[in-house]
């Protein structure tokens, strides 16, 4: 099973820049997009069905803001749009699909870069993710969680750790949450397959030519339960063509 996740920073914009070329080249079984920023009619274009995908969409109450969608070639047993509470639904951040032998959770974590109020919202979101994950783990099916987590976990995951230690997305409290979360049974599959890889990022600011200089952050993840760790075969980041300020992350798992 091949999984692709991307914060497209506007699905219409990403499509105009070559997103479908990536999808056709990779032919993933599961696609998770974050920050779609589009009405449902613009997301459910007919070509997705022609490519064999069924679409599930979670929109924010505010038009043109946030939003996640999941495209799948595998029919789910159950769908929960806005899985969680509060902004998981109202800001269009969460879709949970249940399959016969795993859960697939597309999740867009909030950013705290605009100030203390949103940073507090982010911490509350992290606490809720911990609680919801623990509840899913009790159901005895492996979990695949994908999306823009808006946190670079370690110094290997950011171009200039010392300069960013006081910035949202690399705060000690956020990084500790990720470490604790992994201790709870989730595995960063890209890092598992590439334990020593550096200078491998999934997001770059538009400022100061950061992408051309590869001054980025790895904040987009495909996580899997411990039971799926040995099923992970390949993991990569697709930075070309440039369709967003983020890059697509792709993982192949040997599961039916």
Automatic annotation (TrEMBL):
<dbReference type="GO" id="GO:0003906">
    <property type="term" value="F:DNA-(apurinic or apyrimidinic site) endonuclease activity"/>
</dbReference>
<keyword id="KW-0479">Metal-binding</keyword>
<dbReference type="InterPro" id="IPR020848">
    <property type="entry name" value="AP_endonuclease_F1_CS"/>
</dbReference>
<feature type="site" description="Important for catalytic activity">
    <location>
        <position position="220"/>
    </location>
</feature>
<feature type="site" description="Transition state stabilizer">
    <location>
        <position position="150"/>
    </location>
</feature>
<feature type="binding site">
    <location>
        <position position="245"/>
    </location>
    <ligand>
        <name>Mg(2+)</name>
    </ligand>
</feature>
<feature type="active site" description="Proton acceptor">
    <location>
        <position position="246"/>
    </location>
</feature>
<comment type="similarity">
    <text>Belongs to the DNA repair enzymes AP/ExoA family.</text>
</comment>
<dbReference type="InterPro" id="IPR036691">
    <property type="entry name" value="Endo/exonu/phosph_ase_sf"/>
</dbReference>
<dbReference type="Pfam" id="PF03372">
    <property type="entry name" value="Exo_endo_phos"/>
</dbReference>
<feature type="site" description="Interaction with DNA substrate">
    <location>
        <position position="246"/>
    </location>
</feature>
<feature type="active site" description="Proton donor/acceptor">
    <location>
        <position position="148"/>
    </location>
</feature>
<keyword id="KW-0460">Magnesium</keyword>
<dbReference type="GO" id="GO:0008311">
    <property type="term" value="F:double-stranded DNA 3'-5' DNA exonuclease activity"/>
</dbReference>
<dbReference type="GO" id="GO:0003677">
    <property type="term" value="F:DNA binding"/>
</dbReference>
<dbReference type="GO" id="GO:0008081">
    <property type="term" value="F:phosphoric diester hydrolase activity"/>
</dbReference>
<feature type="binding site">
    <location>
        <position position="35"/>
    </location>
    <ligand>
        <name>Mg(2+)</name>
    </ligand>
</feature>
<keyword id="KW-0378">Hydrolase</keyword>
<feature type="active site">
    <location>
        <position position="108"/>
    </location>
</feature>
<keyword id="KW-0464">Manganese</keyword>
<dbReference type="GO" id="GO:0046872">
    <property type="term" value="F:metal ion binding"/>
</dbReference>
<dbReference type="InterPro" id="IPR005135">
    <property type="entry name" value="Endo/exonuclease/phosphatase"/>
</dbReference>
<feature type="binding site">
    <location>
        <position position="246"/>
    </location>
    <ligand>
        <name>Mg(2+)</name>
    </ligand>
</feature>
<feature type="binding site">
    <location>
        <position position="148"/>
    </location>
    <ligand>
        <name>Mg(2+)</name>
    </ligand>
</feature>
<feature type="binding site">
    <location>
        <position position="7"/>
    </location>
    <ligand>
        <name>Mg(2+)</name>
    </ligand>
</feature>
<dbReference type="GO" id="GO:0006284">
    <property type="term" value="P:base-excision repair"/>
</dbReference>
<feature type="binding site">
    <location>
        <position position="150"/>
    </location>
    <ligand>
        <name>Mg(2+)</name>
    </ligand>
</feature>
<protein>
    <submittedName>
        <fullName>Exodeoxyribonuclease III</fullName>
        <ecNumber>3.1.11.2</ecNumber>
    </submittedName>
</protein>
<dbReference type="InterPro" id="IPR004808">
    <property type="entry name" value="AP_endonuc_1"/>
</dbReference>
<feature type="domain" description="Endonuclease/exonuclease/phosphatase">
    <location>
        <begin position="4"/>
        <end position="246"/>
    </location>
</feature>
């Amino acid at each position: 099973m091949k999984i692709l996740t991307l914060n497209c920073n506007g699905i219409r914009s990403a499509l105009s820049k070559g997103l479908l070329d990536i999808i056709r080249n990779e032919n993933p079984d599961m696609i998770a997009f974050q920050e779609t920023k589009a009405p449902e009619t613009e997301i459910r274009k007919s070509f997705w069905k022609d490519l064999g995908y069924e679409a599930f969409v979670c929109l924010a109450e505010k038009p043109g803001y946030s939003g996640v969608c999941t495209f799948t070639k595998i029919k789910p047993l159950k769908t929960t749009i806005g899985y969680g509470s509060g902004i998981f639904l109202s800001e269009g951040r969460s879709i949970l699909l249940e399959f016969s032998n795993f859960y697939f959770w597309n999740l867009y974590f909030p950013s705290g870069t605009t100030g203390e109020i949103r940073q507090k919202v982010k911490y509350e979101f992290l606490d809720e993710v911990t609680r919801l994950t623990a509840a899913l783990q009790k159901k005895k099916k492996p979990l695949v969680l994908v999306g823009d987590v808006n946190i670079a976990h370690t110094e290997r995951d950011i171009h200039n750790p010392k300069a960013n230690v006081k910035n949202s997305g690399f705060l000690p409290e956020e990084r500790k949450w990720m470490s604790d979360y992994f201790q709870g049974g989730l595995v960063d599959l890209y890092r598992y397959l590439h334990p020593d890889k550096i200078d491998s990022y999934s997001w770059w600011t538009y400022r100061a030519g950061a992408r051309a200089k590869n001054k980025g952050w790895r904040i987009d993840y495909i996580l899997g339960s411990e039971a799926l760790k040995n099923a992970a075969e390949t993991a990569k980041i697709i930075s070309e063509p440039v369709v967003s300020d983020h890059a697509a992350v792709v993982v192949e798992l040997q599961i039916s």
